[in-house]
Design a protein that fits this description.
The protein has 476 residues and is of the alpha+beta class. It has 15 helices and 21 strands. The strands form five sheets. Strands 14, 15, 16, 17, 18, 19, 20 and 21 form an eight-stranded antiparallel β-sheet that branches. A hairpin with a 5-residue loop joins strand 1 and strand 2. The longest helix is centred in the C-terminal third of the chain and has 15 residues. It is globular, with a radius of gyration of 22 Å. The structure holds flavin-adenine dinucleotide. Flavin-adenine dinucleotide (FAD) binds next to strand 5, helix 5 and strand 12. The site of flavin-adenine dinucleotide has 35 residues, from strand 5, helix 5 and strand 12.
Length: 476
């Protein structure tokens, strides 16, 4: 990039002029690349998943090491710049990009090593879920991660992390054993339960508020490589019966069985009979990660429902189960969600979901509930900032539409109204990683609950000037 003075967004609100010499000095200090909008690779560096939240920084640094990250953090601090940190770019609120500021694109920091004897994975912050699942499954091991394989490990872990293995092993953050982190002061620290325990506590759920994580170390568990999973669907007209069966199933299911109930309109996918394309369905997405010999027994209540529209349940690689929904969430579409944690599935909630979906105007909407209860509920409420140890399910009201959708305003309002209608059954908290840009600080506070004040204390110690603010922000 050329070394002319450029204007960036400053942390105090107004623009900051950064002289060309200062940019040259930064570019000379780092191994990685400094990019402006005219440089090759810019579009990929600033692209995020949710087109609705897309904004652009003025400058991108693609670090090649933790030392590069420290140099960039020092530069942002010294010049008073707004700083963004991009892992996988999948946060729905678009928090990876600091508009008009400096963004660190961590995609090049994707080192990944697995130590099968110690059952640990050391993971760079540019890795996607697929990278980790693939590398760990080569040893028949896994850590709980989410189920769209393009999502970034970094953002997912820092906000808590949930998926099909959560019932067995807790939040992803419960499986974090160590993190290397560049703080607001530019120091590189290794945090664990023994070293900088306060920082480690806050990193386990506190989002990007504490610093830039440059390496995650995860505990691994024997899983797969073959599991029993897939999708099974019934007509929406049977939703009352299917949802009642879901409640019965999840009340008794062993932890190896994780089931996600989803109301949706059938996509025109090859596995959906043509006559059903576009029609309303009640589906289960399933992963049974235990002994395959037990899976059919544990899935008997599902099979007993009979007459599915399609049934794709069967033995398959765990990595397949972790990625088969990828195409349902294309990059660049507009996404808008409301989410709540639930302690149970009361009649009113299930009836409300059905009534809402029956009248939903958004063709590509989903109302879903994922079963979480198990390991996460057994830890103390203050074991990590992530909290929410009373969550037994997570509820999502998810809308998706094309960028030129003329009804977008009405669709957003519908999602907001549907979220409000179902909120009475919430634990009072939502998943921090699913919060949209227009959800206020009250939602952040409610999510951390009793852990919020302690998180503020740790933030005050490690980031007193709130350098790391492009996130669901904890204000010191
Ligand atoms: C299609 C889809 C499916 C999803 N499915 C799941 C799921 O199954 N389970 C689940 O738990 N979540 C899921 N999520 C939510 C996901 O966990 C969050 O969107 C998460 O923020 C994504 O992380 P990222 O690194 O891709 O995002 P980014 O947008 O890059 O980052 C998210 C936030 O983390 C900060 N950050 C990123 N990297 C670092 C770092 N190294 N150090 C410090 N801060 C950093 C960013 O600044 C930003 O504030 C899903 C999201 C999408 C879009």
């Amino acid at each position: 990039m050329t070394a002319a003075t450029i204007e960036l967004s400053g942390r105090s609100g107004g623009p900051v002029a950064v002289p060309g010499e200062a940019l040259e000095d930064l570019a000379g200090k780092v191994e990685g690349r400094l990019l402006g909008p005219d440089d090759p690779g810019w579009d990929d560096a600033v692209r995020i998943w949710n087109g609705l939240a897309a904004t652009a920084p003025a400058l991108v640094l693609q670090p090649a090491s933790a030392a590069d990250v420290a140099a960039a953090v020092g530069f942002a601090r010294a010049h008073g710049l707004l700083l963004g940190v991009k892992g996988g770019g999948h946060n729905i609120a678009g928090t990876a990009i600091a508009e008009g500021g400096l963004t660190l694109d961590l995609s090049g920091l994707c080192q990944l090593t697995v130590d099968p004897e110690a059952r640990l994975a050391h993971v760079g912050p540019g890795c996607r879920l697929a990278d980790v699942d693939r590398a760990t499954q080569a040893h028949g091991l896994a850590t709980p991660l989410g189920f769209i394989s393009k999502v970034g490990v970094a953002g997912l872990t820092l906000g808590g992390g949930l998926g099909y293995l959560t019932r067995r092993f807790g939040w992803t953050a419960d499986n974090l054993v160590e993190a290397e982190v560049v703080g607001a002061d530019g120091q590189v620290r290794t945090a664990s339960r023994e070293r900088h325990p306060d920082l480690f506590w806050a990193l386990r759920g506190g989002g990007g508020n504490l610093g830039v994580v440059t390496r995650f170390t995860f505990q691994l568990h024997p899983v797969g490589p073959q599991v029993v999973g897939g999708l099974i669907a019934w007509p929406f007209e049977r939703a009352e019966e299917v949802m009642a069966a879901y409640r019965t199933l999840t009340a008794a299911a062993p932890r190896e069985l994780a089931t996600w109930l989803i109301l949706l309109n059938a996509p025109p996918a090859p596995f959906v009979p043509a006559a059903w394309h576009g029609r309303r369905l009640c589906t289960f997405a399933v992963c049974h990660s235990g002994d395959p010999g037990d899976a059919e027994r544990d899935l008997a209540p599902v099979r007993a429902l009979g007459d599915p529209v399609f049934d794709l349940l069967g033995p398959q690689p765990y990595t397949e189960v972790q990625s088969y929904l990828d195409d349902t969430e294309p990059d660049g579409h507009h996404y808008y969600w409301r989410t709540e944690f639930l302690a149970g599935l009361e009649d009113g909630l299930l009836a409300g979901m059905r009534e809402l979906f029956a009248d939903c105007p958004i063709p590509e909407a989903e109302l879903g509930v994922l079963h979480l209860s198990g390991a996460l509920n057994e830890r103390p409420a203050d074991d990590g900032a992530v909290g929410n140890r009373d969550a037994r399910y997570v509820l999502g009201v998810n809308g998706m539409w094309a960028p030129d959708e003329p009804e977008a305003g009405r669709f957003r309002q519908w999602v907001r109204d549907a979220g409000a209608r179902l909120r009475p059954w919430s634990t009072g908290a939502t998943y921090i990683n699913f919060q949209t840009a227009d959800e206020g600080d009250d939602r952040v506070r409610a999510t951390y609950g009793a852990n919020y004040d302690r998180l503020v204390e740790v933030k005050r110690r490690y980031d007193p000037d709130n350098l790391f603010r492009a996130n669901r922000n904890i204000r010191p």
